[in-house]
Amino acid sequence: MAGTGAAFEARHWGRDLKIICVEKANIDRSGAVAQGLYAINCYMGMQWGENQPEDHVRYARNDLMGLVREDLGYDMARHVDSTVHMFDEWGLPMMKNPKTGRYQREGKWQIMIHGESYKPIVAEAAKKSADKIYNRIMITHLLMDENDENRVGGAVGFNMRTGDYYVFRAKTVIVAAGGASHIFKPRAVGEGMGRTWYAPWSNGSAYALPIAAGAKMTQMENRIVLCRFKDGYGPVGAYFLHLKTYTQNANGENYEKKWYEQTKKLVGEYIDHHPTPTCLRNHAFVQEVMAGGGPIQMVTKEAFQDPHLETVGWENFLGMTVGQAVVWASQNIDPKYTNPELTTSEPYVMGSHATCSGAWVSGPEDISPPEYFWGYNRMMTIQGLFGAGDTVGGSAHKFSSGSFTEGRLAAKAAVKYIEDQKAKNIKVSEKQCEDFRKIIYKPLENYTVGRNEITGGTVSPSYFSPLQGLQRLQKIMDEYVGGITVNYMTNGNLLKKGLELLQWLQEDLEHIGAEDYHQLMRAWELKHRAITSQCVTEHTLFREETRWPGYYYRGDHMNLDDKNWHCLTVSRRDPKTGKFTMEKMPVYHIIGDEEKKKAS
Ligand SMILES: Cc1cc2nc3c(=O)[nH]c(=O)nc-3n(C[C@H](O)[C@H](O)[C@H](O)COP(=O)(O)OP(=O)(O)OC[C@H]3O[C@@H](n4cnc5c(N)ncnc54)[C@H](O)[C@@H]3O)c2cc1C
């Protein structure tokens, strides 16, 4: 989404620039929107006075327990409606409210669409804008300017079908490679392996590429856990908001109320905020299951008696998560007669949903305080390197439309960066490109040599497979960094041990083997997941509080601590040593308290 938005907007401002878009899959059906969506989750409706950007900032701030980059959120929100109006113009079927003629609201921020073809529609805009779209190329590394070690010079990768090596020399690079799934052990293993909520191909490249180059990252501890329909990960938004279904424990009780006092002791007045922050609703769910109140169910039997709502309930999955309908069919669940089970997912890392992990970027010049502004909107701490969508940290609740919008904002600034002559005299030598080529294809060599040592079966003493490596990573993250098997619990000692194990994994990744180009992609996906995981673990260790119970718990610091931790965490990995340094950055509440009071 962010990449397509960037390609579109770059052409608007940079008529005579060469714009290329590089995509790991095929842009028509790639990314988190590949299968389609049933709602656009971020639309203000300013033309009808429904919401203002300030309202959205307050909403995101509340949901993230006070910690967001309000400059970035405001900037996205003030532009997002224009993006949605273009989608409408381009032919995306929008549902309309028959009484008002306005877009059909699903909730305060969401509007409903027939979105099976959402991705091909926005991809068409990118295809018409870019000079060339390169599909099936996985970017593995950023090229850096040899005249200025903090300036980007392009990117390299390989074609997963032909194996060809690609070098893209560029004046600016916008990273829009989605979030990170499968860094924590998923609930679906064995026969269900690969089934996940966030897109399985979102492998953290968005974070690994800038981290490896030395860009600063923010809020990487702020992983997300989602309450979803069990086994199919089917989304619940339309059910809660449009169908007005609700949850209950096995005894038919409203369990959320039961955990109010306990939650208040942990987070104080945040539990009284409206709407209840997503993590705190998760917290009640997790506590109730641990106390033996499961299974937690979504009460669908009432809503599904209305034939219209029944249709909406099924269509919601058919346009977005067909797998959930299949799971229900296989388990003999008709939500008209059986209340389906819910579960909490394994954690994901992403910057566009109800969390805001990602790159530390400059905000817009008109509203960002000095600590948040260094020249070009959405530029990272590396010159010429921009980010958008899941890549960018601090600005939650962008979703599909906000990610596309952020791509547009980044592209506009990137064009200005070039026009301001900031990209002159970039030096990328043949040697730099050749060195990366050797590194990229090493797993193929590891396999070719190592397989000769196999005396029986497939296990080699000299290499391990991407799948073996992935499972090892997921086990470390799950057990030490707060995954599902420990009910999202971790502490300083576990995190330190986790970092040690991740470091050994990094060393062993030199010996990963790939038998073909597809496995080579898997190898690089794993390497990107591993470096992302290191960053997540460092951040989780640094923040000595439990800011988002329900997303994860620091057992040694179980309370929210506004006195010491009402701040953003920022990290940098030194590309030469691989060591991370951490710092606190202030949270500026740009939308004032007066307005906040009025809104609540
Ligand atoms: C199940 C589900 C339901 C959702 N429901 C909604 C909804 O109802 N409404 C809504 O508004 N939003 C919804 N979202 C959120 C929305 O999809 C995301 O916010 C949005 O897609 C993020 O945009 P992005 O550009 O950052 O990432 P993506 O759209 O995922 O794009 C990332 C792209 O980068 C590519 N890529 C990754 N690594 C590399 C690499 N190394 N080299 C080259 N290319 C690479 C990927 O193939 C992909 O095309 C949902 C997401 C999911 C998963």
Question: How would you describe what is shown here?
Answer:
- The chain is an alpha+beta fold and 600 residues long.
- 38% of the residues lie in helices and 13% in strands.
- Strands 14-9-18-19 form a 4-stranded antiparallel beta sheet. Strands 5-6-7 form a 3-stranded antiparallel beta sheet.
- Helix 14 packs antiparallel against helix 15 and helix 15 (492-508) packs antiparallel against helix 16.
- The mean pLDDT is 95.
- Flavin-adenine dinucleotide (FAD) is lined by residues 1-3, 22-25, 30-33, 37-41, 138-139, 176-178, 197-199, 201-202, 205, 235, 321, 352-353, 389-390, 399-401, 403.
- Flavin-adenine dinucleotide is lined by residues 1-3, 22-25, 30-33, 37-41, 138-139, 176-178, 197-199, 201-202, 205, 235, 321, 352-353, 389-390, 399-401, 403.
Task: Summarize it.
The chain has 600 residues and is an alpha+beta fold. The chain has helices spanning 2-13, 53-63, 70-89, 118-129, 205-213, 237-241, 255-258, 260-267, 278-290, 307-318, 322-330, 399-419, 430-450, 466-480, 492-508, 517-542, 562-565, 593-599; strands at 20-22, 37-40, 111-115, 132-134, 137-144, 152-159, 165-169, 173-175, 216-218, 227-229, 246-248, 297-299, 342-344, 358-359, 385-387, 489-490, 553-554, 567-573, 580-586.
Structural class assignment: alpha+beta
As a whole number of angstroms, the C-alpha radius of gyration is: 23 Å
- Count of discrete alpha- or pi-helical segments spanning 4 or more residues: 18
Q: Can you summarize the main beta sheet?
A: 4 strands, antiparallel
Could you list the spans in which at least 5 consecutive residues all have pLDDT below 50? none
What is the end-to-end distance?
Answer: 32 Å
Beta-strand content bin:
5-15%
Main sheet: which strands, in order across?
14-9-18-19
Beta-strand segment tally: 19
Which percent bin holds the helix content? 25-40%
> What ligands are attached or bound here?
flavin-adenine dinucleotide
Mean pLDDT: 95
Q: What best-fitting shape do the alpha-carbon axes yield?
A: globular
